[in-house]
Amino acid sequence: MSETEKQEDRTPDLECYRVGTALEPVEPASLSEHSWGLAVIWAASENVTLPAGVMPPSPKGARFCKAEGRRDCLCGAMVIPGRAPFGYAVTGDCITFLDGDETVRPCLKQMEKKNWREPGLGVFLCDLWELLLAGDLRAMEELEQRITKLENVVLSGASGTFHRRLMAVRREVMTYIRYYAQMDGVLYKFLENGNGYFSAEDLRLFQLFRERVGRLESEAENLREHCLQVWELFQAELDLRQNRIMKVLTIVTTVFLPLTLLVGWYGMNFRNMPELSWGYGYPVMIVVSILVVALTIWILKKKKLW
Questions:
Q1: DSSP assignment string, 147-208
Q2: pLDDT by residue (tens digit) across 233-289?
Q3: Order of strands, edge to edge, in the sheet holding 23-26?
Q4: Domains, the chain
Q5: Residues paired with 89 in a beta bridge
C-alpha cells in the first residue's frame, strides 16, 4: 500500500459538520470563515486546534456520566456501558466531541444519512442519544434470557456455577441502572438551560427523551428484581435439599434407635442375664432386631413420614 493510500485510510484527528436539513461534512477552515448556524466538531485528541467552539474536558478516567454548566459552555462526559467514554461541550452554535476511541464518530457517519425537517440543537442531540441507546433493549433482552436460563438451571438441580453466573448478570444489570440514573441527571442539567442555549422545542424533546430513559431504567430495575427472584428460588431449592437430607438422616436414626437400645442393654454383660447363656439367645436377638426395624418402618409409612 502506498503512502497516499495509508494517509487516506488513516482516521483524521478532526472532523467538522454543519447541521442543516442533514449533517453535512465541511472543511475545518470554513467554520472560522463562515457562520454556519450550528456546527459539530469531532476531535480525536485534545491537542488539536479547534476552528470553533470549546474543547471538552478529557474523558480519560471518567467513571460516570455528568454535565456541568460553565460560563462559556455546557460540558461533561458520557460513560456508556460497553463503549469508551467521550467528552462533550455545547455552546449556542457549536457542539464539540472529544472522542479518541471513536464512540461518537460512527454515530455521526450514520447521521449523515438523516434528513431533518426542522434542524436544531435539540433534534441533533436527541438523534445522537438515540443511536447511543440503540442496542440497549437488545442487550437487556439478552440479559433476561440469561436470567431465565439460570432459573431453569436452578429448577433442574444442576447449579454448579450458578453463583458466579448470576452475580455476573447482576453486575451488568446494575451497570445499566447506574448509567440510566446518570443519564437522567445529565438530561436534567440540559433541561435547566442555565446558559439559554436551548429553545422551547429543544427542551420538549429533551423531556421526551428523559421519559424514554426512565422507561429503560424501569426495565433494568425489573431485571434486577428478576435476579433477586432467581436467587430466592435458589435459596428455596437449597433449603429443600437440606430438608430432604435431614429427613433421610432422621428416618435412619429413628429406625436404628431401638436397636441401639438393645445393643446398650445387652452390652452390659451382667452375670445373671439368662439370655447370655441361652443357646437360642443370638438367633432370638436377630429376629427381634428384624421385627423392631420392620415395625418402625411400618409405623413411619402409616404416619406418612416416609
A1: HHHHHHHHHHT--SSHHHHHHHHHHHHHHHHHHHHHHHHHHHHHHH-TT----HHHHHHHHH
A2: 888 888 888 888 888 888 888 888 888 888 887 777 777 777 777 777 788 888 888
A3: 23-26, 14-19, 39-43, 94-98, 86-90, 74-78, 66-69
A4: 3-132 (3.30.460), 136-241 (1.20.58), 244-302 (no CATH)
A5: 75, 96
Whether 190 contacts 74, CB under 8 Å: yes
* Size (the chain), residues: 306
| DSSP character at residue 87 | E
Q: Which residues contact 296 (CB under 8 A, 6 or more apart)?
A: 254, 255, 258
Backbone angles phi, psi at 194, to 5 degrees: -65, -30
Q: Considering only CA atoms, which of 249, 257, 248, 251 is closest in space to residue 300?
A: 251
| Residue with more model confidence, 282 or 173 | 173
Q: Work out the percent of the chain whose per-residue pLDDT is above 90.
A: 37
Place of cell 476511541: 101
**Can you count the helices (H) and strands (E) in the chain?**
9, 7
Q: What is the Cα–Cα distance from 302 to 295, expressed in whole angstroms?
A: 10
C-alpha cell at 37: 448556524
Residue 83 to residue 102: CA distance in whole angstroms: 9
Q: What is the DSSP string of 14-58?
A: EEEEEESSSEEEE-HHHHHHS--SSEEEEES-TTSPPSSS-PPPP
Whether pTM exceeds 0.70: yes
Output the DSSP codes for 100-115. TT-SSHHHHHHHTT--
